[in-house]
Amino acid sequence: MKLKISIIALALTGMWACQPELNEFTPSKGNADFTTYMSAGNSLTAGYSDGALYKSGQENSYAAILAKQLETVGRTGEFRIPFIESEDGVGTRGGALVTKMKMGFSTDCKGVQSPSPVLANPNATQQELAVLIGTPVGANGPYNNVGVPGAKVGHLLAPGYGSLNPYYGRFASAPGNAVVNEFATVQPTFFSLWIGNNDVLGYATSGGIGDVITPVSGDPGFGFAASYEAIVQYFEFTATAGVVANIPDITSVPFFTTVPYNPIVLTDQAQVDALNAGYAAYNGAMQLFGSELRINWTLGQNPMVIADASIQVPAGYEALKMRQITAEELVLLSIPQDSIKCGGWGTQKPVPDQFILTSPEKTEVANAVTAYNQVIEQVAIAHDLAFVDVNAYMKQASSTGIKLDGVMFTNTFVTGNLFSTDGVHLTPQGNAAVANFFIDAINAKYSASIPKVAVSQYNAVLLP
After folding, report:
1. Is there a contact between 324 and 295 (Cβ–Cβ < 8 Å)?
2. Segment 105-153, tens digit of pLDDT
3. So what's the pLDDT on residue 9?
4. Are residues 211 and 77 in the same domain?
5. Assign residue 170 a region: left if phi > 0, alpha if psi is -120 to 50, beta otherwise?
6. Quick check: is 464 in a domain?
7. Could you tell me the residue range of the domain that residue 155 belongs to?
8. What is the pTM assigned to this prediction?
9. Are 274 and 296 in the same domain?
10. Total domains in the fold of the chain
11. Is there a contact between 192 and 438 (Cβ–Cβ < 8 Å)?
C-alpha cells in the first residue's frame, strides 16, 4: 500500500523521471579482494550429494555458486573444479563403490511399493567406478575448489593424503602433496573454509562403534584446534580476507531424525501378550540383578528393543544386554527397514548398536560439535575473518524452517528442500541457500554488497 501511495504522489508532482529503479542494487567488493577465490573443506564443499560425487552436484556446490556471485565484485578467471565426468558419480556404501542415489520406487519385504531413494545405476561395476574415481586429473589444475569428501581437519595437513583418499588423489598436483600445499598453486586473495563435520560424523553415523571423534587438543594434524589454525595460516600466505563456517549439530540432519524411535505398532492384543510373554524371563532376570530395565509392550506405538553393550549383567548373561530405546535416542537412516518389518528387529531381536546413537553417544557428539564450533569462531575472531553460523541456520531449519525466495527449507527427509537423498548432504537448492548465508556473512564483515542467489532457480530432490 505504501508503494502505491508513493507512485501516485510522484505522478501527481510530475517527478516520474526522478524515480529510482525498484530493487536497485550496486555490487561492491567493500574492503575485500575477491580477485582469486579458493575454497577448501570436505564433501559439503566439494558438492557431494545423494551419496556420491557427480558432475552437476559439483557444479552446484555452495562454493561454485558463491564463486559465480563473486564475479560481480571483482573475481576473475575460471573457478576450476576437479570434475567427476559422470552424472551417476561415485560414492561408497558398506565398503563398496556405488553410484549416486535418486528417488525411485522400491518394493519392501511385504510386497508394498513406495517412493524411495534407489541407486541411479545399480549395475555399475566396481571396476567401472574405480576407474572413474582413480583417473588422475591433477594435470588439469590447479583447482580452486579443493573440497575432499571424507576429509577431517587434520587430513588437509597430511602429506601423501591422496594415497589414502582417492577423492583427493585424483586431483592432487603432486603425489606427496598435502591438501594445504594446493593453496600455493592458486594463490588466493580470498578463501572459504567449511570443515569439521567428518571429525565427529564418522563416529555418529556408525552408531558410535566405528570412527573416533577427533580430540580438540593436540598438535597440527592430530588435534582439531591446532589443525584448524594451521589451515587458516596456510591460506593467509596470500589471502587477505576469508570466510569460515561452523558445523551443524546432528539433531538438525535428517540422517539422524527421520526414523522414529517407536515404529513398532501393535494392533492386536494377542501380539502384545505374546511379546510380553517372550520377555518375561528377561524382566525377571533384570529384577533379580537389581536393574530397573524392563521390556514391556502395549497396543499402539512401541519403542524398539536395541542392543546396548554398556548394560551391566553377570558373566554368562551377555545375551541380556538389550533394552527398549528412549525417546531422546536416535535411530540412523541406514537401518534396514525390511529387517524391522519382516526380520523381527526391534521386537524379537535387538537392533544392532551400529544403527542407534544412544544417549551417552549423542552427548559425546554434541560436546564435540560445541567444542569445534567454539574453536572455529575463535579462529575467525583472531584472524579477523567473516564467520557463518551454519549451526544456527540448521537449527532454525529443523524447528521453524527457513523461507528464502519463496522456498521453505526444513530438515524433513526428501521433501524439506535442504537435504539430498542421503540425509546428510545438501541439494543444489540447499547449497544455494548456504551460499546466501556465506554472502550475508561476507557482506557484513567486509562492508561488501555481493548479490544473493535466487534459490528458487535451483533444484531440490527430484521426485519420480
Report:
1. yes
2. 999 999 999 999 999 999 999 999 999 999 999 999 999 999 999 999 9
3. 32
4. yes
5. alpha
6. no
7. 37-84+138-257+360-457
8. 0.92
9. yes
10. 2
11. yes
